[in-house]
User: Fold this.
Amino acid sequence: MSCPGRRCGARGTPFLTLEVDVSSSSEAVCCPHCSHPLSAFRLPDNSGWQEEFHLACFNDQCPYYRRGWDLMWERYEVKASYRYRLDPATGVASPLAVWSPDAIKDRIIDGELTRDVESTGDHEGE
Ligand SMILES: [Zn+2]
Assistant:
């Protein structure tokens, strides 16, 4: 198989290196709990993650998310929940803690996940 653009040339392309190993197709990645397509969101600066974004299910009807409210309340007496989150670099899923239904939603990256993102040069150097 010739490479259709996966590792051709530019390393460190901004955004979307969507290499999640999801049934080897280029379809949208969906939440296993509700089948809602996952959305990309920007990670907080100090999150400790290397990636610039992760994927998460922002469906408010998602059973995983809805159950989270009860569980968190019962266990920790906090009004919080979590959403299904997927690390696009590793394909590893983990809970994304949210404190309100709108939490993190302002970080969602709009639009289709394409590689053609205009990089606004906000590349912070360390
Ligand atoms: Zn879901």
Notes: Residues 31, 33-34, 36, 57, 59, 62, 64, 84 surround zinc ion (CB under 6 Å). Residues 5-15, 20-25, 114-119 have pLDDT under 50 and may be disordered. DSSP finds one helix and four strands in the chain.
